[in-house]
## 1
Amino acid sequence: MANPKTTLYVGGLEENVTEGILHAAFIPFGDVKDVSMPLDQATQKHRGFGFVTYLEKEDAAAAMDNMHNAELYGRVLTVNYAQPIKIKGGEQGWASQPVWADADTWFERQQQEEELAKLNAEHEATVKAAEEEERKLAAGKGIVEEEDSKDDPMVQAEAAALAQQST
């Protein structure tokens, strides 16, 4: 269905109604582009509904206004704008696109997540390097934090080495 505003759902069709009869019933409202009536695979008869596609959306609106609740072959018709064909798949669960249509966006999202992970790792490395540099400077000036000197033997060794160099 190209444009849902030009395609009408016609429900409540009697089993003897054909695509030709449906076309004839809807042609007074404008140029009909297509008529389709899905078949039941088991019985090869239509399933009680069909679709009529007009060239102009104004014609479709006129047909819907005039044919909704009208009678055809003794049955009351239901006429509404058709919904897009839905197939299973896609990120949205039921989508009007094939499953593989999301492949590019999925791949792009994976690349973005990998890039973000790399940036986070680089940031953490930079922060650690800055903290280490700060510790070295503090140790060089003789300012050693008590917690670091108690917990970190490396800080104690660096402080001792720097003290030895300055003498």
Note: The helical segments are 19-26, 57-67, 103-140, 146-151, 153-166.
## 2
Amino acid sequence: MDSIVSSSTVLIRSYLTPPVRSLSPASSVSVKPLSSVQVTSVAANRHLLSFRSGGRRTRNISNSAIRCGGIKEIGESEFSSTVLESDLPVLVEFVATWCGPCKLIYPAMEALSQEYGEKLTIVKIDHDANPKLIADFKVYGLPHFILFKDGKEVPGSRREGAITKAKLKEYIDSLLNSISVA
């Protein structure tokens, strides 16, 4: 039986009965059997590990910066065409690969991106790869949200820090109502 023990780094224990834990008590640990499963860790090194039964393991490292699924990641070169020239309001989320709160709200942002698909565009901008945008918009904390409508920042739309999906939904709904898009 293959099993994985994970915390801030991924440790692999093969053919151990029972699985061995050698982590500090404060570490978050989950142990489960694997057969033909792919496990993706969104840690800073972006590991993609594939496991096959029989103990054969393959490890590939992906160099992608931030995995966005339904949310498009843009840079300085696309900012004008994607955000400022958009017919829809655009919620810009400034994030970083090393930002814990950014990773925490990732699933909520993905769900909300699908939910607001026709009323709102949500994009991500990587903090480290886009220093000019960070300076231009005075982004000091992450994650940082700014809503744009008709090429301009909506007054009062800035928000900083991780919040729950329900609070994100309230925040987006109130902004859309304030600009009459609801």
Note: Residues 44 and 169 are 28 Å apart (CA to CA).
## 3
Amino acid sequence: MAFSHPSLLFLIVTFLLMQTLGDAATCSTCFTQSRAAYYPNSDEQGTETGRCGYGPFGATLNGGDVSAASDLYRDGVGCGACYQVRCTNSYYCSDKGVMVVVTDHGSSHQTDFILSRRAFARMAQTTYAATSLIALGVVDIEYRRVSCSYPGQNITIKIDENSNYPHYLAFVIRYQQGKKDITAVQLCETHNFVCKLLDRSYGAVWTTSSPPSGPLSVRMLFSDDDGDETWLTPVNNIPEDWKPGSTYDSGVQANL
């Protein structure tokens, strides 16, 4: 019996250690160490030509606190995701950092983020510290995924200017809320609810070369890393006579 006690203690310690390591591996609120730069040739806000396909809207989204991402871009699935990013130099950097939205794809000097100049400066404690950060150009950071929030704003559908009614439809989904990714989109006829799975052309741009006729409903599949999936159906439809360049309010928010 004396032999069993140390063995039992060893098994308990081993179990607790494995549980702790497992929790750390799946921690959704933990920070990841990395580096960040900023757009060197931009104004205070982001770029209007980001690879997510947001256009000029992508430069001003979230007040201009936006970023390009490298691996986190994930072939466009990462577009619209929000991250808390904070630099780690305690002399210059605040504890809060800045919340940015991914609107572009890119990397520089082994970075995960290329922030807008505005967002990069907002990681600092003071205006003086912000000037020093800008002078550094590239800084060590830590980041984590956070929920996107746009109070009072519904998800909107922006029809791409290159769409050609009624033969070709492309659109971008704006104001993606919550902490999940949009991993699939269906376009449904509202009269008989026959749905067609759309292609992700690039970034956040969804397309079809033969859109259904009549008023259209855009169904969005929100997914997370744990495999939880939720289909969201808007209250409002895209009108039958949709027009390139137009924006339509879905009537719903996605606080998932």
Note: Confidence is low (pLDDT under 50) at residues 8-13, 20-25.
## 4
Amino acid sequence: MARVFVYGTLKKGQPNYKHMINTTKGIAKYQGRGRTVEKYPLVIAGKYNIPYMLNIPGTGHHIAGEIYTVDDQMLRFLDEFEGCPDMYQRTTMRIEVVEWEGKRGTAEVRPASSGVMECFVYNTSTYQPEWVQLPYHDNYDSSGTHGLSYVLRENRD
């Protein structure tokens, strides 16, 4: 099992969460909430209002999200879903655990006593230069006050 930190449309209550609970795509177990140890810019960009965490450490905010353990099948699905490695790149980041719901498990799954763990995160180094000028968010919500609702793939032209 691998740990994955999601910060965008795959979180609970967001447009693509359905994929996280679709067992035909693999297994994803919600473990808790966290935030990036380092600051990153989280922007909403493109004509489909897609959230992107730009791989510019030290700029932006500590990004809030959810921590999951996923099996190999789900990890392969997420790589494909996120357009890895072209649109997003799967990298390892340090995530501070804010709230842990994970059941008693192996030390591999539990957070360290420091409350920080390494997780895979889908961020991007392949962004448009003008995205750096967009507003930075710390917690993505497709229905947020930003007014930039995510456009589902099935509704795109």
Note: The chain has two helices and seven strands.
